[in-house]
Amino acid sequence: MGESKLKPATVFEPVARASRRVTFEDNALCALLFGSHQIHLARIEQHIPVSLTARGNEVWVQGENEEDVGAAVEVLRRLYAELGRGVQVGRDEVDAAVRFVRGEAARARAGGRLFDIELRTERRTIVPRSPNQAAYLRTLFTHDLVFALGPAGTGKTYLAVAAAVTMLRRREVDRIVLSRPAVEAGERLGFLPGDLKEKVDPYLRPIYDALHDMLAEGRLQQRIEGGQIEIAPLAFMRGRTLSNAFVILDEAQNTTPMQMKMFLTRLGENSRMVITGDPTQVDLPAGVRSGLVDAVERLAGLPGVAVVRLEREDVVRHPLVAAIIEAYDRPAAEVPGAQPDGRER
Fold first, then answer.
1. Contact predicate 209/282, CB 8 Å
2. How many CB atoms lie within 10 A of CB 249?
3. Which of 89, 105, 87, 102 is nearest to 46 (CA)?
4. Radius of gyration for the chain, computed over Cα atoms and rounded to the nearest angstrom
5. Who's near 209: CB < 8 A, 6+ residues apart?
6. Which of 15, 31, 80, 119 could form a cystine bridge with 126, CB 3.0-4.6 A?
7. Which 8-state DSSP code applies to residue 117?
8. What are the residues facing 247 on neighbouring strands?
9. What is the pLDDT along the chain (345 residues), one digit of tens a residue?
């Protein structure tokens, strides 16, 4: 029996229903826009169902519909414009651009374009990475007292420190005062080894890290020694008046109402105060009301007071962080394998 001759299978490639070609003038910026081995283009493709093909200084964008193609083109244009302004573009900036372009409702709430606000510090240029972050940055410069609420990784403290450093450099304030409740609301530091600085430094480390990221090498210590920057635990604020200062209280969910009242009444002339915290991460003893929650309920709506709420969508750490926050926000009854009392089967 002779061998049958079968025709080779025909492969039908999907034909893009929409396409557009984008040309960029600066070849050097194109290399930064595309990323090493075109990693930034691949990142855009992960978020938007399009195909991006780069040739020289051109990108061919193909997709199933005009909306997706237009979104990808807008992301590329925005990132290219930022590179032209000296902003470094990496994975986080690509993700941020996609969030802005695809989030029409969120962008309307922010009331502006993607990077229409930027803060230039000594070491880097800081731009918002979500519409809520953009709104938060604007609020920091327009209100005397700002409460920033949201989960970890949403930039509450980092952006507040960036605004403080910017105002200090512009000489709009004479100093920055940064504080945190140490250890817990009771601030029992005596059990820890070392002198006072060694006791409190671990709890103030996130603030130090943010400042190191924005000030030139050696400048942080100079400004601390010169009194322009003060970092101290909450207990050290009692009895003081903080004038001509940008004041930040971090992790404020771990204050009691009396501690919060004490801190808020430190506000002096020509000063701004930012209170940051996550109301879902209160470490106070059972039955003790959070001073952050109490203050927001009492003061929201007063002239000069703003309350900014950042969400899971604003998390700018590892992509898993948003998923982790969402998982922990689910009721225990919805967690596979969990008993009603929270124990695993």
1. no
2. 28
3. 102
4. 25
5. none
6. 119
7. -
8. 177, 273
9. 555 555 554 444 445 578 889 898 888 888 899 998 899 999 998 888 889 998 888 999 998 888 888 888 988 988 998 888 888 888 878 887 887 776 643 444 444 444 467 788 888 888 887 778 888 999 999 899 999 999 888 889 999 999 999 999 888 899 999 998 865 444 454 554 554 555 556 667 778 888 888 988 788 889 988 999 998 888 888 888 899 999 999 999 999 999 999 999 999 998 999 999 999 888 888 888 999 999 999 998 899 899 999 987 777 665 566 667 667 766 655 655 555 554 444
For residue 198, which amino acid is it?
E
Distance CA 41, CA 236 (A): 50
Q: Is the separation of the CB atoms in 310 and 151 below 8 Å?
A: yes
Contacts of 240 (CB under 8 A, 6+ apart): 266
Residue linked to tokens 């506000």: 267
Element (H, E) at 214: helix 196-214
Q: How far apart are CA 136 and CA 146, in angstroms?
A: 9
Count each helix (H run) and each strand (E run) in the chain, helices first: 12, 11
DSSP state of 313: G
Torsion of Cα atoms, 192 then 194 then 195 then 199, to 10°: -40
Q: Are 286 and 118 in contact (CB under 8 A)?
A: no
The model's pTM: 0.64
**For the sheet containing 18-23, what is the strand order?**
18-23, 58-63, 50-55
User: 220 and 141 in contact (C-beta within 8 Å)?
Assistant: no
